[in-house]
């Protein structure tokens, strides 16, 4: 595996889904064109349900009126997977990487992404693992992280959602990932009240170790699309 140019990492804070979606698409185009180094966006989202390419509308249990009453937006997007929830207290990670540069297939990339989260969770004394036949990261008490990606012209976007202090009642609005399985969080398993930015900072070490890259110091703020 070839060491890529230093990967830039950004902490975006809490942000709406559409705004970050647009940012991902802009960065993806720049990376494909060679005008942007590989980039990792870390953040929290305002409450939103996303439906992937293979998502079933029936896996969203609540009506549009009920969702609006709880302030939950809904978007159908181009990532893989089914239905999931994003919201405050959940660490979102969107790696924008050139898989050819890394020498990885899409399947290998997914496994590495899972590994990076398993390593991170071990820092909190949580034993997490994959489950055969499924994408994501699991504990015996439920799913801790959902993963849904898109890859175009060998550059990745979308990514993972790790439940840190997430209000898990939001998952009652959906059938998460279409699996009819429970979800859990770092807080539920450890009783720790963690700040997502703190967890994001710790994640950089796990990400670098898993992907064999060098990540820049976590920058608070949004990347410039003018200077690359």
Note the topology.
Blueprint: E1 8-15, H1 17-32, E2 39-45, E3 48-51, H2 64-69, E4 73-76, E5 83-86, E6 90-96, H3 99-102, H4 106-122, E7 137-139, E8 142-152, E9 155-163, H5 186-190, H6 196-211, E10 219-220
Parallel strand pairs: 1-2, 1-10, 3-4
Antiparallel strand pairs: 2-6, 3-5, 6-9, 7-8, 8-9
Helix pairs in contact: 4-6
Short account of what is shown:
The protein is of the alpha/beta class and 228 residues long. The protein has one domain: Bira Bifunctional Protein, Domain 2 (BirA Bifunctional Protein, domain 2). It is 28% helix and 26% strand.
Low-confidence stretches: none
> What's the CATH architecture?
2-Layer Sandwich
CATH fold type: BirA Bifunctional Protein, domain 2
CATH class: Alpha Beta
> Average pLDDT across residues?
91
As laid out across the biggest beta sheet, the strand order is: 7-8-9-6-2-1-10
Separation of the first and last Cα atoms: 24 Å
Radius of gyration: 16 Å
Q: Which class best fits the helix and strand makeup?
A: alpha/beta
* Count of separate DSSP helical elements: 6
Number of domains: 1
- The SSE string, one letter per element, is EHEEHEEEHHEEEHHE
- β-strand amount: 25-35%
CATH superfamily: Bira Bifunctional Protein, Domain 2
For the sheet with most strands, the description reads: 7 strands, mixed
Overall geometry comes to globular
